[in-house]
Amino acid sequence: MDRAENIKKYLDQEKEAGKYHKQIKIEENATGFSYESLFQEYLNETVTEVWIEDPYIRHTHQLYNFLRFCEMLVKRTCKIKTIHLLTSLDEGSGKEQQSSGLEEIRESLRNHGVQLELEYSSLIHDREIRFKNGWMIKIGRGLDYFKKPQSRFSLGYCDFDLRPCHETTVDIFHNKHTQKI
């Protein structure tokens, strides 16, 4: 029992110092990596705000990925009040679909007492998610690491734990100062 307490104390010190780092390699076609599976241990009642930087929340499937991520936040024990999304604006024919999809998500979140703040930048490339409790997650592919389902009636269409993934790396850090100034 003392050893477990010492390990917990050591991890708390590492997190406080900003030295905590965990890396998860998702292999090609791996399953079991839904948003809930990846993020649930980092969400608690202190998470009231989330910052998402992902330049590719444009196409229908990417909007659905973002929606699924928002659903996960609303369902968890966190008391989410604000979601900040920084993405790039689709400059092509999908611009209207992107803006109307994000507005629908904003309205739906508002019905659950959550504010969605949108910002666009043509300069962003990196993808990261920051929780107000100090956790920062960097995913090589952003929220779009799932493969297209085989059909509308195949396992994994609804349950992302059953959906095959693209290969990517997830880096998890803790730092109490992850919020941008």
Assembly type of the chains comes to single chain
What is the topology, as strand order, of the major beta sheet?
A: 1-7-6-5-2-3-4
Helix content: 25-40%
Order of helices and strands: HEHEHEHEEEE
Work out the radius of gyration: 17 Å
Put simply, the count of helices is 4
Shape: globular
Biggest pleated-sheet summary: 7 strands, mixed
Plain-language structure description:
- The chain has four helices and seven strands, in the order αβαβαβαββββ.
- By secondary structure, the chain is of the alpha/beta class.
- The N and C termini lie far apart (40 Å).
- The mean pLDDT is 91.
Q: Can you describe this structure in just a few lines?
A:
With 181 residues, the chain is α/β, with parallel strands linked by helices. Helices cover 29% and strands 22% of the residues. It has helices at 2-16, 35-39, 60-75, 95-110; strands at 21-26, 49-53, 82-87, 115-120, 128-131, 135-139, 168-174.
Show the helix and strand layout.
Layout: H1 2-16, E1 21-26, H2 35-39, E2 49-53, H3 60-75, E3 82-87, H4 95-110, E4 115-120, E5 128-131, E6 135-139, E7 168-174
Helix pairs in contact: 3-4
Keywords:
alpha/beta, 181 residues, 4 helices, seven-stranded mixed sheet, 29% helix, globular, single chain
